[in-house]
Amino acid sequence: MTLGEEKASWMRAVKLAARAGVCAAAICAGMDGAYAQSADQTGDQADDRGDEEADAFVLETIMVTATRRVQRLQDIPLSVTAFDEATLERLGVNTFEDFAQRTPSLLFSNDGGPSNQTLSIRGVGVLSGGQAGAGSASTVAVYFDETPVIAPFSRNASIQPPVFDLNRVEVIRGPSGTLFGASSMGGTIRYIQNKPDTREFAAKFLAEVNTVEGGGTGYGVNAMVNIPLIQDQLAARIVVSQREDAGFIDRLPETFFQDPDVERTEENVNSIETTSVRLALRWTPTENLTVSPTFYYQDITANSSGTADVVAGDFLQVRPGDEPQSAEDKYANLLIEYDFGFADLVSSTTYLDRHVQRTDEAGAFLSSVLSLPLPVLVANTNEDNQNFVDSPNEVFVQEIRLQSNDEAPLQWLAGAFYFNQDGGEQQSLPAESLGVFLKGLGAIPAAAPDFLFDEDTRTNEERFALFGELSYTFWDQLELSVGLRWTDVRRETFSQTDGFLFGADLTDISENFKDEITPRFYAAWTPDDDHLIYASASRGFRVGREQTPITDGPCVPSLIELGIDPNSSGRVDGDSLWNYELGSKSSLFGNRLTANVAAYYIDWQNIQQTVNLSCGSGFVTNAGSATIKGAELELSGRPTENLEFNLALSYNDAETNSEGQFDIPGQEPGDPLPEVPKWVVSAGAQYSYDITESARGYVRGDVTWRNEVFQDFARTDLFRRPDFYLGSVRLGVEFEDFDASFFIDNIFDEYIVFSIDSTGQSTRPGRPRTFGVRVSSRF
User: Fold this and answer.
1) Cβ contact 500:453 at 8 Å
2) Rounded-to-integer distance, Cα 677 and Cα 672, Å
3) Cα 93 to Cα 109: distance, rounded to the nearest angstrom
C-alpha cells in the first residue's frame, strides 16, 4: 500500500470514528439534559413515579466471571467485552462470526472449512500465510464454562457452539494465562452456558429462515426445556439445535479452462449443516454442595469447501467434484462446587473427543510445486486425486481451585491444572490417474510412489500447572494484585512421511520439554463507584512445535533459498510476549453511558510464522520479534427509554523490529506484521417504540468497517484482503414472551475476503446480502 493509500485509509477510519463520536457527543448532550432533569425529579420532591421513570432507561448491569469471580463488568481491571443473553438475542447473533465483528481487536479468518476459524486478538494470532490447517498453535483460548476446548497444538480443534441458550459470551483481551492457561497468549473467549434451574419449569424456542442473494436458502431451529426433577434440588436442561447455512459458491467443471462459458455443474455447494444437543443436570444435595454434569454433542458437515477460485470469478470454483468437510465433537464435563464459608472449592473434570475430516482440491498446490499450468492439472484431476485430511483428537482436562469468597480487603485464589491430549493428523494425496499423467510428462519420476505425499503425525501432550492470585485493597479504593502460573509441558511427536513431494520414506520421533512462568500484575484505583483506572503487565507464551523435516524432494531447493538446512527443518522454538496496559472504565449520567478505554504496548519475541515456500508448501519458522502499539474504545449508551447505541473502535500498529531466524521473503525490520488491520470500527443503534400496550416495535442498525490486511510480509496484491463495510438492519416487534423480526445482513452486499490460500489462487469470501425472518418464544 502506498503512502497515499495508507493516508486515505487512515482518514477513512478517522472520519468514521469522528462521525460516530459526534453522534455520541450529541446523544450524550441529550443524556446530560435528561440526567439533569431526572436528578431534579429524584430530589427531595420526587415521587415514586419519577423514580421509576429515572430507572427505566439505565443500562443493564452485566455480571462476568473473567477473574473467576462474579463481578460487574465495569468493576474488573481487564479489557473485556461481554454479550449477555439479551444482547445476543437483540443483535440476532447465531454464530461466532456474528459477535466477533462487534468486538474490538478480535479478528478471524477462515479457510472455508466448518468450525475452522483462525483467531487473533490485538494482532496476536496464528500467522499461517493462508496455509489451510497450517501454522502453529492458537494464541487465543476458547473455553466452555470452566474448560478449554481448543487443542494447544492444533488451530483447528476449537468447538464453535450455536449461540443459543448461552448466559453470555466473554472476550478477554490481552494475555490471561494466569487464570486461563491453555493457548491464551493473545486472549480468551468464554462461552458461559445457562445452568439448569431447580425452582421452575421453563422453555424457549427460536426459529429462522433466510435466503442469500444469488445463493440458497438456510434455516435454524433451536429449542430448550428446563425441568425441575426434585424441587430446589435437581433439574435437567435440554437444548437442541439444527441449522443449515445456505451455500453461495457455484462449481464449474474442469472444461472451464477450455470454455469459460461452460454451464455450472452445481450451485450453492458450500452449504453447512450443524446439529447439536446439550444435556445439563444440576444437583444441590446440600446448601453448600452443587454437582453439575454436562454432556454436549455437535456434528458439522459441509458439502464442499467455501473457497472461490480467482481465475473463475466471484463465488465460483473449478473442481472435479465435492470436497466434503466435517467436524464431530463429543464433550462431557463434571463440575463440583463446595462452599466452605470462607472459600469456594471448584473442581472441573472434562473429556473431549473431536474428529475433523477435510478434503481439499490439490490443483493450485501442485501447480506451484510442479511448475505446471493450473488448467493442465485440473483437466487431468478427478475426485480420486484430492488431498484427504483426517484429524482425531482426545483431550482430558482436570482443574481444581480454592478461592476466597468474602468481602475482605485480602482476596486470594490457588489452583492446579492438568491437561492430556492424544491426537494428530493424517494427510494423503494419491497419485492415481494424475500420477500416470505426471509420469508421462516427466514431471515426476517414473518410479515415484503411488502417493504424491502421505503424512501421518501423532502427538501426545501433557501439561501440568500451578497457579494463584493475590490481591489487597487499601482504603477501599486502591487494589494491588499479583498472579502467577507455572506450567510444565511435555510433548512427544511421531511423524512418518512418504511420497514424491517428500522424496523418500521418513520417520521422525521427537520430544519437547518446557516449563514456563506467566505472571500478571495490576493496580486498580476506584475513586468512586462509577470510575475505575488500572495499569497492568502480563506475560503470555506459546510452546514450540515439531514439523515434518523436508530432507528430500522438490521443496529442498526452496529451503536452501532461505538459508535453511533441510536436516534441521523439523524444530520450531516457542514464542512469548509481554502486554503492558493502561485503561479506564466509567459509568456516566446515572449509568446511562459506559465508556471503556485501553491503551497497550505488546513486545512479542521469537514469533512463530508460516512461510510460503516457492515450491508451494508451507514451512513454520521463527520470524523474529515485533511490537504492537494499540488502543481500544467501547461506548454503550441509553439516552432515553427508547434509544440505545454502542460504539467499538480498535487501533493496532504492529511492526516487526528484528529479522527472523531465516531470510523470510519481504521481511525487513519496521515492516507491518501480516494479517493485522490498523483500524476496526463498529457501531450500532436501536430505537424501540410502543405499538400497543402489549406490543413494542424496534428498529436496529449495525455497521462494521475493517482496514485492509496482507497475508505476507512482502505485502503483495496477490495476498491483499481489501477493507470492507459490513452492515445489518433489523425490524421487529416484541411481546412479553414472543418476538418476531425481519433482517438484512451484509446490507451493502460487500464482497468480503476472509482468507487467501497459500498459492494466492483461491479465497474464502463472506456471505453475500442475506434476507431473513426470525421468531422466538418463551414459556
Assistant:
1) yes
2) 10
3) 18
User: Is 377:363 a contact under the CB 8 Å cutoff?
Assistant: yes
Encode pLDDT of 41-87 as tens digits.
334 433 443 444 445 578 888 888 888 888 899 999 999 999 999 88
Residue 718 pLDDT class (50, 70, 90 cuts): confident
Question: Among all chains, which residue has been given the C-alpha cell 430446589?
Answer: 232
Position 73: which residue type?
Answer: L
Q: What does 640-697 look like in DSSP terms, one character per residue?
A: SSSEEEEEEEEEEEEEE-S--SS--TT--TTPBPTT--SEEEEEEEEEEEESSSS-EE
Q: Could you give the angle at which helices 48-56 and 3-41 cross, rounded to 10 degrees?
A: 170
DSSP secondary structure letter of residue 321: S
Q: Could you tell me the CA-to-CA distances from 708 to 20, 240, 627, 711, 726 in Å, in that order?
A: 20, 38, 19, 10, 13
pTM for the model stands at: 0.88
d(CA 107, CA 88) in angstroms, rounded, equals 18
Give dist(CA 563, CA 557) in Å, integer.
10
Phi-psi sector, 340: left (phi>0), alpha (psi -120 to 50), beta: alpha
- Residues 177/518, Cβ–Cβ less than 8 Å: yes
For residues 450 and 458, give the distance between their C-alpha atoms in angstroms, rounded to a whole number. 22
Q: What DSSP designation does 112 have? A: S
Phi, psi torsion values for 372, nearest 5 degrees: -115, 150
Four-point Cα dihedral 345, 348, 349, 352, nearest 10: 180
Lowest-pLDDT choice from 174-183, 196-205, 542-551, 745-754: 542-551
- pLDDT tens track for 178-200: 888 767 889 999 999 999 999 99
- Residue 662 sits at φ, ψ, to 5 deg, of -130, 175
d(CA 143, CA 557): 42
Which one, of 461, 406, 599, 413, lies nearest residue 153 by Cα?
461
- Closest-CA residue to 680 (of 652, 645, 712, 711): 652
DSSP 127: B
Taking residue 417's Cβ as centre, other Cβ atoms within 10 Å add up to 22
The Cα–Cα gap between 606 and 625 comes to 5
Closest C-alpha among 165, 211, 107 to residue 752: 107
Distances (CA, A) of 415 to 69, 180, 442, 572, 698: 14, 11, 62, 30, 46
φ and ψ of 325, to 5 deg:
-135, 145
Q: How many CA atoms lie within 13 Å of 350's alpha carbon, on the beta-carbon side?
A: 27
**pLDDT of 691:** 94
Q: How far apart are the first and last CA of the chain?
A: 55
Secondary structure (H, E, C), 418-455: EEEEEEEEEEEEECHHHHHHHHHHCCCCCCCCCEEEEE
Spatial CB neighbours of 102, under 8 Å, sequence gap ≥ 6: 83, 91, 646, 648, 682, 684, 702, 704
Q: How far is CA 352 from the centre of its chain?
A: 19
Judge contact between 123 and 108, C-beta under 8 A: no
700, 685 Cβ separation under 8 angstroms: yes
**Closest by Cα among 370, 270, 249, 372 to 312:** 249
The angle subtended at Cα 204 by Cα 200 and Cα 205, nearest 5°, is: 165
Q: How far is C-alpha 685 from the chain's CA centre?
A: 24
